[in-house]
Write a structure and sequence with these properties.
The complex is a heterodimer. Chain A is an alpha/beta fold. Chain A has helices spanning 10-19, 24-36, 61-64, 87-93, 95-101, 112-120, 351-359, 364-375, 377-380, 386-401; strands spanning 47-48, 51-52, 72-77, 83-86, 123-129, 134-144, 148-157, 162-171, 179-189, 194-202, 207-217, 222-229, 234-243, 249-258, 263-272, 278-287, 292-301, 308-318, 324-333, 338-347. Chain A has one domain. In chain A, the strands form three sheets. Chain A has a nine-stranded mixed β-sheet, covered by helices on one side. In chain A, strands 4-5-7-9-11-13-15-17-19 form a nine-stranded mixed β-sheet. Chain A has a two-stranded antiparallel sheet with strand order 1-2. In chain A, α2 (24-36) packs antiparallel against α6 (112-120) and α4 crosses α5 (95-101). In chain B, α9 crosses α10 (164-170). By secondary structure, chain B is α/β, with parallel strands linked by helices. Chain B has helices at 2-10, 14-26, 35-44, 49-64, 86-89, 107-116, 120-126, 136-149, 156-162, 164-170, 182-190, 423-431, 436-447, 449-452, 457-475, and strands at residues 152-155, 195-199, 209-210, 225-230, 235-241, 252-253, 256-261, 266-273, 280-282, 284-289, 294-301, 306-309, 312-315, 321-330, 335-344, 350-359, 364-373, 380-390, 396-405, 410-420. Classes of the chains: A alpha/beta, B alpha/beta. At the A-B interface, β1, β19 and β20 of A face β19 and β20 of B. Chain A: Residues 144-375 form the SUF system FeS cluster assembly SufBD core domain. Chain A: This is Fe-S cluster assembly protein SufD.
Chain lengths: 404, 476
């Protein structure tokens, strides 16, 4: 059952679509998604005896989702030679491209929240990098102003194309009450193409945030994700790579910093569907105050995935005794010609490191803050976009300095 | 998950399924577990009223609870024939789990017995043919020595009569309540046999207590209950099961194990299960460790069609320690889903989990484990290590650990690796004159050594021999 039967109907969706002058196929896709709301479940969350790690089903969607108040400010920056277009402009000018790719990576009917997002999205971006073009520093900045916002991003790379993208979200003026942000990102990684897709989620702490980013990666292709979560009241964010072509690769890097009563549920999943593929999952997170983090990493090696290399590391640092860190790194291996490993740790700032630094005359608070900043180095090293690297460092520093 | 289910479905043709359904309807009247059946069991055992009440309450819980079906990637339990259970548990119906004649046993089981060199009498007993394994003398000797120290080791049914107060206090009240899961509830309703072990304060039982000898005193022991109470500063090593295959026509084994480790006490519970490959092995095992106590679980899972077994320890007292060593081996048609659960509920508690698994010939192994550190359990540490070996491309090896950390002053580490048997290792051994099979067997023996070295020598030898047998088929 849809949780939103009072708020949205077929009329709502038709109205949204008509106002944007959308072609029939898009309206149909939206209506199919709307209809699917009744049939598909909420995104998977981990349950252990007596506990559910994140409760998405009981959020008050009725009060947060307002399809007609979606307003935002968006900025795009890009090099010459590639198309970075607002979604509806792309539908107008590159209709066949969008039509072919839309929903090809993220099935709108994956779950209740993707279906909702597909039915209601009003804004988005299409990045198209033609064959052989090397594009750096595409930046997409979205500031959310209304009660709710449904955003959509499509990245299509042709053969041997290369692009570095930063997409970021933050909030405009304050509103009373809870808000809802939903973002879907589809990345079509062409043959021998390279994509680094960095994301910085810095929404205000009244916002409930759902994001799903998925990439299909062709032969010799590479799609790397950098997924940074700082803001929001509650986040459920999944990053997923499908290594569909031989010798394709994906590096999935995550960072989060939770404080106060924030709740982050972060997933990283990779499917090895072809031969000689490589995946490397690295996530580092800090939690403070009463914040709670939930991490699930899944390395899925298919029966045909000969000669697979797959690695996963997750480390959580707990700065407060009131916080909670849950983690579940999973291996699903169906081909024995695989080298796979995962590891996860949870702990505090290393007492020996702290002792060493204080013995060298560094004030304890400063020493601890330096160690926490240093904890993110393995993530920072992977980031190619300076703005993302600087902003992550800055946001971490701000949070550390605001501590007692 | 779907691929596992598909795989299991493929082993059962549509035609066979239809046939079974017809058969069921013909005997409808006698099927299903009822209160009357439970009363018959309890009366036959001449049990006190409170035990009957507990059984009936467990039955109600069993009937109310849904089948567990929503665990990610869990074994398919749709073929567990609970409705067929009645003839196997009712004392007034003369059909026990075993077969009547050695010749009726499946060939592969006869074969394994022969190859393991197990004596005829024992073969019969272990396979449930009905003859009792005559180990009374060995058992008597042990018993006399223990009794002097106040140690109790007896059949669980006898314990209900002779040690009623202790059993009443501990039996499915503190560690494994029937409400824990559907199969624990079933077990609570129909349990029969098993062992009761009581070790008084400051007593060390310096030889392993083996339930091996007693396994068949009551039918197949498919719903046996083991209750171990180790008082302050006592020490005991309890061994259950054996590596020889056990055969039963009824396809469900659902045992219960409860261990109470008193302050400063040390209990090791070792088990190697090798149920025949038609069996669903669904057990609930749990220990509660008090201050400075140590609990050790050593588990080997070789047999069964599907196993779901996650021995758990609640570290209740400060300074308590838990060690898990588990090994799983899954061949054709097998789904071995095992692991460990540890709850750190007090400061300075420590746990280590070491899991080894081998998947071959289309089998599936899964490590599924939960480590929970509660708020306030400061200075606790846990370390989990899972290693999996895969023989071929038909097999599946999964690892699904869960960690819930509510306390910041902790040290939590989890590591897992999956790989194939190393070509270089095999090549090296071959270059030293071993053939391919021997080389692989030796690598596997080395891989599982952490568990074999925890077992008494005769078990270790038998386990190694069994793995060799299992591998012969696959390497041929």
């Amino acid at each position: 059952m849809s949780v939103l039967q009072e708020t949205i109907s077929e009329e709502t969706v038709r109205e949204l679509s008509e106002a944007r002058d959308e072609p029939d196929w898009l309206l149909e896709t939206r209506l199919d998604a709307l209809e699917a709301l009744d049939d598909v479940d909420f995104p998977d969350v981990i349950r252990t005896p007596g506990r559910m790690w994140t409760n998405l089903a009981d959020l008050d969607y009725e009060s947060m989702v307002d399809p007609f108040s979606q307003t935002e400010t968006k900025e795009w920056e890009a090099d010459e030679g590639i198309d970075v277009l607002p979604f509806h402009e792309a539908v107008e000018h590159e209709e066949s491209l969008v039509r072919d790719a839309f929903g090809s990576v993220v099935d709108p009917e994956t779950n209740h929240l993707t279906a909702l997002s597909t039915a209601l999205f009003t804004t988005g971006t299409v990045v198209y990098v033609p064959e052989g073009v090397d594009a750096e520093d595409v930046t997409i900045r979205t500031t959310m102003n209304g009660r709710s916002l449904f955003n959509y991003t499509l990245v299509v790379t042709e053969q041997s194309a290369s692009v570095t993208i930063l997409e970021r979200q933050d909030s405009g003026e304050d509103l009373d009450g809870a808000r809802y942000y939903s973002g879907l990102t589809e990345i079509v990684g062409g043959e021998n193409a390279y994509v680094q897709y960095g994301s910085l989620q810095d929404l205000d702490q009244t916002t409930y945030n759902y994001q799903l980013k998925e990439a299909d990666i062709d032969t010799y292709g590479t799609v790397d994700f950098i997924d940074v979560n700082i803001g929001s009241r509650l986040t459920k964010a999944s990053v997923e790579s499908h290594l569909n072509g031989d010798s394709s690769e994906s590096k999935m890097v995550g960072a989060f910093y939770g404080h106060e009563d924030q709740h982050f549920d972060i997933d990283a999943r990779v499917w090895h569907n072809a031969e000689h593929t490589t995946a490397d999952l690295v996530t580092r997170g800090v939690i403070d105050d009463e914040a709670r983090s939930v991490y699930e990493g899944v390395q899925n090696v298919g029966a045909g995935a000969w000669d697979t290399n797959s690695y996963q590391r997750e480390n959580t640092l707990m700065l407060s005794d009131e916080s909670e860190a849950d983690a579940s790194p999973k291996l699903i291996i169906n081909n024995h010609d695989t080298e796979a490993s995962h590891s996860a740790t949870v702990g505090q700032v290393d007492q020996q490191d702290l002792f060493y630094m204080t013995s060298r005359g560094v004030d304890e608070r400063l020493a601890r803050n330096m160690l926490v900043e240093g904890f993110y180095v393995p993530v920072l090293e992977e980031i190619e976009v300076e703005e993302l690297r600087e902003d992550l460092t800055e946001r971490v520093r701000e949070r550390l300095q605001s501590r007692d | 998950m779907s691929s596992d289910q598909d795989q299991l479905k493929e082993t059962d043709t549509e035609a066979r399924f239809e046939f079974k359904k017809e058969e069921k309807s013909a005997f409808e009247a006698e099927k299903g577990l009822t209160e009357e059946t439970i009363r018959v069991i309890s009366e036959d055992k001449d049990e006190p009223e409170w035990m009957l009440e507990r059984r009936l309450r467990a039955l109600r819980q069993f009937q109310e609870m849904p089948m567990p079906t929503d665990w990610p990637g869990q074994p398919d339990l749709s073929e567990v024939e609970i409705d067929e259970i009645v003839p196997y548990i009712r004392p007034d119906i003369d059909t026990r789990g075993g077969v009547d004649d050695w010749e009726d046993l499946p060939d592969e089981i006869q074969d394994t017995f022969d190859k393991l060199g197990i004596p005829e009498a024992e073969k019969n007993a272990l396979s449930g043919v009905g003859a009792q394994y005559e180990s009374e003398i060995v058992y008597q000797n042990m018993q006399e020595r223990w009794e002097e120290k106040g140690v109790i080791f007896c059949d669980m049914d006898r314990a209900v009569q002779e040690h009623e107060e202790k059993v009443k206090e501990y039996f499915m009240t503190k560690a494994v309540p029937p409400s824990d899961n559907k199969f624990a509830a079933l077990h609570g309703a129909i349990w029969s046999g098993g062992s009761f072990v009581y070790i008084p304060e400051d007593t060390t039982v310096n030889m392993p207590v083996q339930a091996y000898f007693r396994m068949n005193s009551d039918g197949m022991g498919q719903f046996e209950h083991t209750l171990i109470i180790a008082e302050e500063n006592s020490e005991v090593h309890y061994i259950e099961g054996c590596s020889a295959p056990k055969y039963s026509e009824f396809n469900l084994h659902s045992g219960g194990v409860e261990v109470f480790v008193g302050e400063g006490a040390h209990v090791q519970y070792s088990t190697v299960q090798n149920w025949s490959k038609n069996t669903y092995n669904l057990n609930t095992k749990r220990a509660i460790a008090e201050k400075d106590a140590t609990m050790e679980w050593v588990s080997g899972s070789m047999g069964s069609k599907a196993t779901m077994l996650y021995p758990s320890t609640i570290l209740k007292g400060p300074g308590a320690t838990d060690n898990h060593i588990t090994i799983a081996m899954a061949g054709e048609g097998q789904d071995i889903d095992t692991g460990a659960k540890v709850y750190h509920n007090a400061p300075n508690t420590k746990s280590t989990i070491e899991s080894k698994s081998i998947a071959k010939d289309g089998g599936r192994t899964n490590y599924r484990g939960l480590v929970h550190i509660s708020d306030g359990a400061e200075d606790s540490s846990t370390s989990v290590e899972c290693d999996a070996l895969m023989f071929d491309n038909e097999s599946t090896s999964d690892t699904m650990p869960y960690m819930e950390i509510e306390e910041s002053k902790v040290d939590v580490a989890h590591e897992a690796t999956v790989g194939k048997i190393g070509d270089e290792d095999v090549f090296y051994l071959q270059s030293r004159g071993l053939d391919d099979d021997d080389a692989k067997q030796m690598i596997v023996a080395g891989f599982i050594e952490p568990i074999t070295e925890e077992l008494p020598i005769e078990y270790a030898v038998e386990l190694n021999r069994l793995i060799e047998l299992e591998m012969e088929g696959s390497l041929g």
